[in-house]
Amino acid sequence: MADPQGERAKEAVAGLDGVAVHTDPVAALEAPGVSAVLIASPGPAHEEALLAAFERGLPVLCEKPMVPDSTGALRVVEAEARLGRRLAQIGFMRRYDAEYRRLKALLDGGSLGRPLMLHCTHRNVSSPPDFTSAMLINSSVAHEIDAARWLLGQELTAVTVLRPASSAGAPEGLIDPQFVLFETERGALVDVEVFVNCGFGYQVRCEAVCEAGSARIGDEHTMLVTRRGSAAEEVAQDYLVRFADAYDREVQAWVDATRRGEVTGPSVWDGYAASVVAEAGVRALETGGRVAVDLAPRPDLYAGVSR
Amino acid sequence: MADPQGERAKEAVAGLDGVAVHTDPVAALEAPGVSAVLIASPGPAHEEALLAAFERGLPVLCEKPMVPDSTGALRVVEAEARLGRRLAQIGFMRRYDAEYRRLKALLDGGSLGRPLMLHCTHRNVSSPPDFTSAMLINSSVAHEIDAARWLLGQELTAVTVLRPASSAGAPEGLIDPQFVLFETERGALVDVEVFVNCGFGYQVRCEAVCEAGSARIGDEHTMLVTRRGSAAEEVAQDYLVRFADAYDREVQAWVDATRRGEVTGPSVWDGYAASVVAEAGVRALETGGRVAVDLAPRPDLYAGVSR
Amino acid sequence: MADPQGERAKEAVAGLDGVAVHTDPVAALEAPGVSAVLIASPGPAHEEALLAAFERGLPVLCEKPMVPDSTGALRVVEAEARLGRRLAQIGFMRRYDAEYRRLKALLDGGSLGRPLMLHCTHRNVSSPPDFTSAMLINSSVAHEIDAARWLLGQELTAVTVLRPASSAGAPEGLIDPQFVLFETERGALVDVEVFVNCGFGYQVRCEAVCEAGSARIGDEHTMLVTRRGSAAEEVAQDYLVRFADAYDREVQAWVDATRRGEVTGPSVWDGYAASVVAEAGVRALETGGRVAVDLAPRPDLYAGVSR
Amino acid sequence: MADPQGERAKEAVAGLDGVAVHTDPVAALEAPGVSAVLIASPGPAHEEALLAAFERGLPVLCEKPMVPDSTGALRVVEAEARLGRRLAQIGFMRRYDAEYRRLKALLDGGSLGRPLMLHCTHRNVSSPPDFTSAMLINSSVAHEIDAARWLLGQELTAVTVLRPASSAGAPEGLIDPQFVLFETERGALVDVEVFVNCGFGYQVRCEAVCEAGSARIGDEHTMLVTRRGSAAEEVAQDYLVRFADAYDREVQAWVDATRRGEVTGPSVWDGYAASVVAEAGVRALETGGRVAVDLAPRPDLYAGVSR
């Protein structure tokens, strides 16, 4: 791990075996055993780190913005193009969001026809100090820029920014909200409301309007698809889809607790009680009547129903 | 790893360093370096494995059902109680589902007052072969039994099972759906529709009706809370909540691709294009006009907008 | 019009031409020009009024409950059956609610298969003074009794009432909420949560669970239908459906204002402004540019944009 | 009633007492007993009819467009302004829609702060023959023009129309969809997607984005209000709100059936059955057990549960 502040790095990796700490990123790249690189430093440091990884043939995951200015970004493109093979993955994480992926799959599937418009919303509760009017575009809308290119599979060809009256909730001088219009190479229109001091929540929404229907994500953790006569959400077909997060969290909670030397979660008393109730339930099914549940006395170890 | 079918186990751990394969679970427990045990064998094998882990003082995560019959389950309780400390976490994974956790936190917070009723739904598209009428209770409703005990912090005291007309979509002779009523030690009522051949989807829902409001989970990946005059969903307050899954998937996709020797996901061309568009956007903001986006020629390596 | 309190009746019909006021309902029925009868008196007065209307062959709309006790109700049935033709419509108004009608049409259409269960909710903010535990059944659930019979096209054959712990928000001694289970002649199950001091709102919901899907009304003014893999709402196909209520209210508002000698609503200034803006919009479409809207000075008569 | 096609008019008023039919609208205005005028003729006929009504001091409800061109519209404004009092209500019926009224009340109430943007959608399944690109503005968006002026209480000051690629579902040569941007006198921005051959439904939506929250109508027959941390719908507080439409339809159905000499709707058998079931329910409440429902034999007159 490399961090100019070595102490901070040491804290971060405390408890992990075999992680060396460096203050110089290039030295870190050259350390033995390095097979891939994750760049999460501030944007201005990315170009040098990317080029160094390219030289060494190391695969790299680089946080966005890849490089803050387009001239430097082009140098990175040219360097990788000269290598003739891809080494870098850029951190546009929306492409990995479950809702965006469903929307992308729907659009690519073609059942809604050609996309004509994307209506996008990007709202933050409040902006950080020193946030400038330009940053609404190059920091916030930057996400919509990549999402629109990816969803549509088209380059953006022109942009216009409208300025409605700024909110009294925005810092003095900040142009907020803004309304941004993008045109694409095949004539689609992308509009983005960006409002970084909306006060009420973090909302990222996208509605794709196509020739044969529309689809909207971001209101709930689901996708609403409107086609001939109906506005529908998909219903999960099995428990692995519905409870994927629960299974992950369950095992992680167990691993974490075990590392701390603790045991948490549902206890054997819970397992026993479930068993007794289920047996009573089966008898109730068989007899048609009400069946009382008869539990053994609860050992003190399990005082209270477990939390 | 232990599996009576050693070959299957060998396949499962191929590519993982330092994992020994056993066919006898107790031998596996005694192998050097074992510090915790995950039991995912069929239910009848659980009791022996749990007791063996207890003897060796090993923390254990045991899949549900803990032990298929309540007599064996009580033996496990007594064995752990004799140890005087908890070693086992039972695999009731709903307690780790995001929606259930929000509901639990809301009920425990007390703002809705005392819970009076839980209305639960448990629907599967279709049941596996050989699924019996009793298994609707002891396999399917088993989840609601634990969830109700946990959500309410109360033991269940009686159960009644009603049998509406069975669906034509259920296998001959299966009593499906069933409607199960539980009473609790402090007078709450829990009703469960269990319908394992509903044909249309996997749906798990729970509405808690309390003295000062109700809350429902399971319709969307959100929780709807009804209180004085309003039915509301929580709006996320920051991107870490909204895009937690995207960040996890992004890094996992990178790790997986790197292991396969591939590079996937957003490319440096995407990083470059985003940078050019953002710069055009900032100019559009400053000038108030429409600004064309001027990209360099795209190297062949990045043919097409990346998918 | 007949009302034992003649003064109250006189007030009610003030301003309507040709309406005679009576204190005796039977005298009112015999008055010249009476061609139909609407009975909105308290329940105990209904039987006599219905029988009197039957004797005179008058069609009648009678508020629910038709007759408070079933013995009297049976006398009314027998009287009309002797006539050999129907004269009475009973005021179960849910059969005329848009959502209930959509649900009924869906069930009758048969696409969801046979209904197996109805899950019903009936919640009031608070109960009137002197509301008794029995009135939760015979006044509140009375609506679900008719709705279930009508939706299913089946008689109810048995009933069970469960008593969860009563809410602290209910008056001392009132058993509230209650959970009522009805069985039907073809084996469907109807469960009703009735909670007349829920505190938060008036909610009437019904979910019909069928062999091939489920449909729920009452959450929004829409119907959610879940079938193979999708949970969908119908999208209106034309403006007459979407804005039916607006057209009715518009004309009614005009008639009401005209009667009061007033003119309200959108003004000719609004008509003019819309016309100017639309013309500017058409020019903007033709030119591709931004077109300013140029309004004539606004006469004082239309100060402010009309409300 | 006046209609240039007198026969059509005669059919329309058949069965209504005391309605005279005219082919000349001005003659109709001068007929005895005329106290108010409803103009539903094609737009080009409106100006003459409005001015004639003004001369005679008659209140008038005039369908939109008030007058097709703004010059004629201004003449109407000037004529009424000369009278010094309002006589005309223009048929912008959205102002009478329940959802729009809720949104208007919310904005006027001020709790969301100043409105900054309106995002509007206007979609039709398909356009009528001979619909032109200009008519998307002056016939369809005309509704949003009035709605925006009314909701915001501001005049619109400029307009821009963007043309995304037209849908393959639109007739050859029709520019459809269009994206229209309005600016207002106090700096709000109104954007309108108008798409009159969307194929899937009639959708009219409006989201008002304000300084302290946003509110959206048109997705369901409800309004979703997002404020600090929550997205909420209002829950009705009593049955008069929830079932207002049912009561209206119930009485109307009775009046209509009575006029046709028929009796429809819930029968006295339904009233009787409800009474028997309610009595059984009360016994079930009192005894805690299951109580069978015992109906008298059903007279043939009531064969089947009434529909």
From TrEMBL, chains A, B, C, D:
One of its GO terms (molecular function) is nucleotide binding. Residues 104-293 form the Gfo/Idh/MocA-like oxidoreductase C-terminal domain. It comes from the Bacteria. InterPro entries: Gfo-Idh-MocA_inositol_DH, Gfo/Idh/MocA-like_OxRdtase_C, Gfo/Idh/MocA-like_OxRdtase_N, NAD(P)-bd_dom_sf. Residues 3-87 form the Gfo/Idh/MocA-like oxidoreductase N-terminal domain. PANTHER family: INOSITOL 2-DEHYDROGENASE, PTHR43593. Belongs to the Gfo/Idh/MocA family. This is Inositol 2-dehydrogenase. It comes from Streptomyces diastatochromogenes.
